[in-house]
Every structure is written in C-alpha cells, then in structure tokens.
Design goal:
Blueprint (H helix, E strand, L loop, with lengths): L2 H8 L6 H6 L4 H27 L3 H17 L6 H13 L3 H26 L4
Helix pairs in contact: 3-4, 3-6, 4-5, 5-6
C-alpha cells in the first residue's frame, strides 16, 4: 500500500472534491469555507445537544436541516442519512431517545471531520 492510500484510509469522513470543484480550486476560498465550517459545526452541535436535552423538536428539526448543507459541502456524505432521520423524527415529534442516539453518531463523525479539516486546511495557508 502506498502512502497516498494510507492517507486516504485515515481520512475517510471528508471528501473535499466537491468543495474544490465548486471553488474552482481557489485555495483562499476553500480555506475560508473550511474555517467557517470549523467555527459553525461545533456551535451547531452544541445547539442541537441543548435542543435534544430540552426536547425542542422544532429546533432539532431546524438544526438537522441546516447541518445537512454544511456537511454536504465538505463531502461528509455519511452524515446525510443520520441528519435526515433526525429531521424526520423531530418533525414527527417522536422518539427523543432515537434522536439522542443519532446525535451521538453525528457528534462522533463531526469530531473526526473537524480533525481532518483542521489538518487539511494547513495545506491551504
């Protein structure tokens, strides 16, 4: 296995090809979006955690919906079904336990994505 494959395997959450494509490879713009993601996602995760704790289904639905676009631009496709499920359960106003379990998965994957993007963004300085 060559070094590229090793790095690819270690970074299995994000696929920045879409971001690179829509930004036409402009490193300054890509870096700006990465930086915004690194600020925005922890805030959204905290807000979502609070909404779940307070069983605020409308807020949960809203945060899950908003996060779908944030994660899709970073190519974190593994989160799309998780966020979709959270959004649908919240819309129905049911199963806070399942939403909480999905949020644990979401948080874990987002933390991995944040690490990957922090590392990757270093090459865009």
């Amino acid at each position: 296995m060559n070094e590229t494959n090793v790095n690819k395997t270690a970074k299995d959450v994000c696929d920045l090809a879409y971001l690179t494509e829509i930004m036409s490879g402009k490193k300054a713009l890509i870096k700006e979006i990465m930086d915004r993601f690194l600020i925005q996602i922890p805030e959204e995760l905290a807000n979502l955690k609070s909404a779940i704790a307070e069983e605020k289904f409308i807020s949960i639905q809203s945060y899950a919906h908003t996060m779908k676009s944030s994660v899709s631009i970073m190519g974190i496709t593994i989160l799309t079904p998780i966020l979709k499920d959270m959004e649908e359960l919240a819309k129905a106003g049911t199963d806070i336990q399942k939403i909480s379990e999905l949020n644990k998965q979401l948080t874990s994957i987002c933390n991995k994505a944040i690490s990957e993007i922090k590392e990757e963004s270093q090459s865009y300085l």
